[in-house]
Amino acid sequence: MNLDFSYYMPTRIIFGCGKLKKLKTTPHLPGKNALIVIGSSGAMKKHGYLDSVIDYLKENGVESVVYDKIVPNPVSEHVEEGANVTRENGCDFVLGLGGGSTLDSSKSIALMAVNPGKYWDYINGGSGGGKTPPNPALPVVAITTTAGTGTEADPWTVITKTDTNEKIGYGNDSTFPVMSIVDPELMVSVPPKMTAYTGMDAFFHSVESYLATINQPTSDHLALEAIGLITKYLPVAVKDGKNIEARTKLAWANTEAGICESLSCCISHHSMEHALSAYHPEMAHGAGLTMLSVSYFSCLAERCPERFPDMAKAMGEDVDALPEKERPFAFITALKKLIKNVGLDKEKLADYGVNKEELKTLAENSSYTMGKLYDITPVELTLDDIVTIYENAYTS
Fold first, then answer.
1. Residue 273 in contact with residue 283, Cβ under 8 Å?
2. Are 279 and 298 a contacting pair, CB within 8 Å?
3. How many domains does the chain have?
4. What is the structure's pLDDT at 2?
5. For 130, 313, 365, 395, which has the most beta carbons within 10 A of its beta carbon?
6. Residue where one domain finishes, among candidates 172, 187, 202
7. Is the model's pLDDT at 114 over the cut of 80?
8. pLDDT score for 7
9. Sign of the torsion formed by the C-alpha atoms of 246, 252, 256 and 257
10. Nearest to 360 by CA among 327, 387, 328, 320
11. Phi, psi at residue 157, to the nearest 5°?
12. N- to C-terminal Cα distance for the chain?
């Protein structure tokens, strides 16, 4: 185990059912005029969450302005537009309300509200300019309504540059939320399929953080617990979205996964999915990860098996009863069961318009835009390896 690591977690997390109401009384809000960022679907308005947030902020002496254009795979154009709205209205902090796309966008908007130029000037990877922002982001408050990305507990934000099909993660110390509210009651409205997609995203954040070469003791502990909780409770929540115990367990597993991403990191499984949903933005991130997963992790289990048995045990597999050579692949068995139990086993890449002729382009894109995640993957993957993983996923 590598005991050479950094631990920095500056986010205040307020967790539990009914905790949204804490907005009325918390002394920890970082300003008096919030830009509230929500998605374009209208769900935050439909379920009354937006009105509640506006009212609670007002009771706490905070005015607000709403920006409501964020799409499921968020784009840099909306980051820059949201930043302009922030400046024009004199907002002194940004509040993200919604799923991972909204919270990610909130962080990027907060960064660009106080920095010059274009968002892509600061991106490391692909065609990004790699500049260091001269100013820290405005403070961010995150209120998550899905159990998926864990972005309420990490500094990362994933945005797409549409004209070049580049979907790249970014973050620095200032893009950690200063405060996050995780209220499982806000998650009961998430439909079954989206519950499955977001839950699998959290699952893979945990798995990848456990496998990353920069793993460390705290991330290991949280990752294995999250893997077990998601395996047990995600099928329950998909079947009965109003089961508050399942929603609460998943909410905590998701937050654990976010902490893991702060202490460890995702690996190239995410690089490969980013290429998929950059070229096919109608594909939910969790769907892309799931469709790639059996092919991807089978490759890793074959070539670097050491950490797979522990994950299989966390998922409830009787690993010790197996011959030693088969133990790593108990994780693949458990993964296939989980995918089936949450109703995603019939999904195919071709259903989203992916064709075999573009797989090499996707492989090249994943290396170009998110190559740093290949560097911390426990197996060295050549371009041919990456193409083969895509091919196996496509034909499975």
1. no
2. no
3. 2
4. 53
5. 365
6. 187
7. yes
8. 82
9. positive
10. 387
11. -145, 130
12. 35
Q: Which residue pairs from 322-330 have beta carbons closer than 8 angstroms and sit at least 24 positions apart in sequence? A: 328/301, 328/302, 329/298, 329/301
Q: Which of the residue ranges 2-6, 71-75, 234-238 would you say has the lowest mean pLDDT?
A: 2-6
If you search the block for the tokens 């960064």, which residue do you land on?
111
Choose the final residue of a domain: 155, 187, 219: 187
Same-domain pairing of 37 and 162: yes
Burial class of 346 by CB neighbour count within 10 A (0 to 12, 13 to 18, 19+)? exposed
Could you tell me the residue range of the domain that residue 378 belongs to? Answer: 192-395
243 shares its domain with 293: yes
Residues linked to residue 142 through DSSP beta bridges, in sequence order: 96, 180
CA–CA distance, 284 with 204 (Å, rounded to integer)? 14
Structure tokens at 345: 């086993």
Radius of gyration from C-alpha coordinates of the chain? 20
Q: What is the mean pLDDT of residues 16-38?
A: 98
CATH code: domain of residue 129: 3.40.50.1970
The residues, ordered by sequence, that sit 6+ positions from 247 with a Cβ below 8 Å of its Cβ are: 147, 184, 185, 187, 188, 237, 241
Question: In a 3-state reduction of DSSP, which class is residue 318?
Answer: coil
- Give residue 90's pLDDT band: very low, low, confident or very high (50, 70, 90): very high
Q: Quick one: which of 121, 113, 117 has its CA closest to 84?
A: 113
